[in-house]
Each structure stands twice: as C-alpha cells, then as structure tokens.
Amino acid sequence: MNKDMGKNKLVLIAVIIGVICAAYFIYSNHNKKVVQEANPPVDRPSVEEEHLFPAPGKTVYQMSLYLDINTRSIYGTTILTTVNTSERILSDLVFTIYPDAFRQADSSPAPAPAYYAGFDAGWIDIDGIMINGKMAEYHKEGVSMQVIVPEPIKKGQDLRVEMKWRTRVPKAAYRFGYSDQVYMLGNFYPVLNVADRGGWLTTYNSAFGDPFCFHSADYLVGLNIPENYGMVSTGTVIERSAEDTGRQDYLIVAENARDFCLGIMYDYNGMYEYYDDLLITVVSPPGHEKQMESVLKQAADIIDYYSKTWGPYPYNEFKIAFVPMKGFHGMEYSGLIFLQDAFLGSTANQQRSEFILAHEIAHQWWYGVVGNDQIREPWLDEGLANWGAYKYLAGVRGKKITPPTEESVNLARELSDMYSTREYYHTAYTGGESFWFGLEEELGTEKVNRVLQRYYSDYQFRIANSSNLLDTIREEAGRDMEYYFNEWFY
Ligand SMILES: [Zn+2]
After folding, report:
1. How many CB atoms lie within 10 A of CB 484?
2. Hey, which of 16, 141, 258, 335 would disulfide with 230, CB 3.0 to 4.6 Å?
C-alpha cells in the first residue's frame, strides 16, 4: 500500500440523521431473499488434506438479521453450509453461543461498571435447528450448544444447518452490549466450533481474555435496521436499499473472515479514505472530526508498516468504530475493530491511543488471518499484537522502546490456568512481547521478520499453534533453539 497516492479526498458523511418511524417487517420473506443471493463457496485445494473442519473456503454463513430496537433484539436466521472435511463421521455439532455468557450477573464477563443501569441479562434463544432438512435436537451448556445430527454425516458429505435464533442485547457498555444508542455486536450469533483429531474444541466462559477459536469462513449477511441508524461491519456492503417502512436493508459480503462483527449506531459520523485499493473507515459520535482524521492517517500508516513487514493485508476494507465500551481499550474482529470512545476525549494520552490502535490492527494479522486458539494459547496473538505495536511506534514514529524487564513467564498456559486479569496480561501480553523482544536479541530483527513472513504465509486463514510457530523459528534460525524455548515453555 502506498499512501502517497495523494488525490484521495477526505469525505465526511453524516451516516445517520433522522426521525424514528414505526415499522413492521415480514421476517420470513426477507430470509428467502438472502438465501437466493448466496455465493457458492470457493475451493481452496490444500485444505482437504489437512482435515480442517469446518474447512475455510468451504464454509459459508448466510445470515439474515433484523434489529428490533424496542426489545433490543436481533432476530436471526442462519443457513450454514459446509462439507464434512473431518476424518470422522459426524454425529453431533458443537456451536459457541457467546451471548449466553451474559445471562447471569455472577458469570457475566462484562465488568460491573459496564452495567450502567444495573445488571441486565443478555442471551441467545434458539428457535429450531434443521440439519440436512431434518429437525435436530440440541442442548446448551454455558456458552456451548451441542446439536445432535439426525443422520450422521459421512466423510466428504455436504452439511447444511438451518437455524432460527434471537439474540437479546444487554444494556451493557461492552463488546457485546448496548449503550448510548450503540449496539456493539461481537460474537452475537451461533458459530460452529473447530473439530480436530481430538474432537470438538470446546469454548468456555471466561471473565478475561477472548475465549474464542474459530476457523475462517465466508459470510453473506442481510441486515435490516431502522433507517435512522447506521452500521459498520466486517466485510463489504454490496447493496443498500431503503424500504418504505422506515427501515433499510443491507447486503454484506465477507470472504475468509475469522468472525463477523457488527456495530449499529444512532447519530454517528463516518469518515473514510482510500489508500490505493484499501478503503479505511472510521465512525464515531459527532464532534470528533479532528481525531477521526488523525486516526485514519495512523491506521493507514500502521497497515502499511505491517503489510511491508509481515505480508499484505488481505481485505479491501478496514474499519474502526469508537464505541462506548468499558473493560477494554480495544477489541479486534475481522476487518473491524472497536475502540473505547474515551480515546476521543481531549485528555486522552495520544501515544497510548496510538499504541492501542496499532495493537488492535496487528490482530488483523495475528488472530484474523493467522488464527490461533485464544483460549489455550492466548500469548500467540496477544504477544505479537503488543510487540508489533512497539515495533511500529519505534520504526515509524521514532518512539524509543524500553523492552519489558524479562522475567520468567510460562507461555504455555490457557485461560483456565489463570486466576485474574492481571495474571492474564502478565502471561499473554507481557510474556508474549518479551518472547519476541528476546528472540530479536537472539536472531536479529531481519531474521525475526522472516520468521513472521513465513508464519503468515504458511498459516493464513488457518489456525496455527505454538509448535507450528516454534518449528518456523527453528527452520529460519537454522540452529538449535531449545535453550531459548525452554525459558518460555515449561
Ligand atoms: Zn489484543
């Protein structure tokens, strides 16, 4: 990407203005429309040999979403199509249903201050599931839902899951929640878990961290919202139309996305700019045009730096949404990040906010393109995101970095082995970034960059684990590295 292409005009658009109109929506008709416009999945060869399931490139989520602002609910239907690329006959399917983490106050991952109106429950209700045309039974446990397959799916057989659901968005200033007329919708729909040789990778609720591990998939999403609201999402809007009912329809496509995230907001401003073929958009509450402009430029610089250092950014859009979110400075999703709106304040620490921006953007490479199990190996994406942000600030902004004082951290720890947010940050973030600073001292920056370029191209749109990464390091180093690895994994 070359941001010197100059002629790009900064455009300020008022995304949302208007009055509230009453509306009625015939839900089932809308669903049909989306289904007919489905794209066939694209074949990508290497995948089948590896038995990834659900296989990236062969898995499509077609979703139809309807926002009801009166009940703060998303009425959704999903048609998930994939192929049994696993090595076994499938007699059940396991989904993550993250909204159910918000059912009860004592187990909600949102911190108490996020509940600005006292505890308010969020959840997802499933209205029926069909697998290959037959009704299927399911049971929920925590944030997992097991679906019994009526007729077991053989190897190589097509799989079609149809599901009707309703997600209730809690009044919570959180990455999944509603605050100040903003719907922050991360992980709001049922997602098919990953199956490997050992069976289903289960998800569990955790008060800290990002308890997710999903394969990339393609998304085709129809969204219906009141016309006075605006939206921002993963992927690209390919069609937008107003209904005469005071509502509007969007059709959104996202290929090879790790997840599908959505923000729906009232009275927001949007600003966007093209940097060559990449469209960067930032949305925020009104009155922050200067900050939006500078965030756009920073994001372009950051994406440019990572693209040159690690490998190209794979999508044609990137979006930033400033949202009223507590408990996080930022949160990464495919092609979209949420940033806490506190960064818009005049007292916000500029260097700190640029660090957070660079951290969240680095997740597009580490989490988005190269996936990892964020439950069992959170250091893989968090360590690289932090270290990458330091490298950007030093390399592009000329900021002096003081590498963290190294102390012994066991990186081989999963979320359930950690007992506090502090411990989680100490392991995944501080430990993770220290691993990379230390490796740079061992191998030099150039070799470390080569490691990451290779890791990025070898594992793109797949899930890598620590041993994949250590193998890549061994190969690029061309010498024994066990003395170094043993410091970090025990
Ligand atoms: Zn992070």
Report:
1. 17
2. 16
CA dihedral angle for residue 61, residue 66, residue 67, residue 73, rounded to 10 degrees: -80
Q: Residue 372's pLDDT is what?
A: 95
- How does pLDDT run across 40-64, given as a tens digit for each residue? 334 433 433 568 899 999 999 999 9
And the tokens for 308? 């040159």
pLDDT digits (tens, 9 = 90+) for 103-135: 999 999 999 999 999 999 999 999 999 999 999
* Cα–Cα distance for residue pair 217/234, rounded to 1 Å: 12
Can you give the C-alpha Rg of the chain in angstroms?
22
HSE-up of 201 (CA within 13 Å, CB side)? 22
Of the candidates 233, 234, 191, the one whose C-alpha atom is nearest the C-alpha of residue 61 is 191
Structure tokens at 9: 């005009």
Inter-residue long-range contacts of 38-45, CB under 8 Å, 24+ positions, other chains counted: 38/62, 38/79, 38/220, 39/218, 39/220, 39/253, 41/81, 41/82, 41/218, 42/218, 42/255, 44/461
* pLDDT tens-place string over residues 18-40: 222 222 222 233 333 333 333 43
Q: Beta partners for 254?
A: 219
Residues 306/392, Cβ–Cβ less than 8 Å: yes
Domains present along the chain, CATH in parentheses: 1-17+273-362 (1.10.390.10), 21-266 (2.60.40.1730), 379-488 (no CATH)
Question: Which among 199, 266, 256 is positioned nearest to 226, based on CA atoms?
Answer: 266
One-letter identity of residue 147: V
Q: What is the dihedral of CA 177, 178, 180, 182, to 10 degrees?
A: 90
CA of 37 to the centre of ligand 1 (A): 35
Q: Which of 167, 169, 62, 77 is nearest to 115 (CA)?
A: 169
State the CB neighbour count (10 A cutoff) for residue 131: 23
Distance 281 CA to ligand 1 centre (A): 20
Instruction: Determine the distance separating the centroid of ligand 1 and the alpha carbon of 156, expressed in angstroms.
Output: 36
| Residue 198 CA, ligand 1 centroid: distance in Å | 27
CA of 385 to the centre of ligand 1 (A): 6
How close is the Cα of 284 to the center of ligand 1, in Å? 21
Cis status of the peptide bond prior to 109, with omega within 30 of 0 = no
Amino acid of residue 488? W
Judging by DSSP bridges, how do beta strands 182-185 and 262-266 pair with one another?
antiparallel
Query: Alpha-carbon distance 192 to 95, whole Å?
Result: 4
Q: How far is the CA of 163 from the centre of ligand 1 (A)?
A: 31
Measured between alpha carbons, how far is 2 from 231 in angstroms, rounded to an integer?
Answer: 28
Tell me how far the alpha carbon of residue 97 lies from the centroid of ligand 1, in angstroms.
21
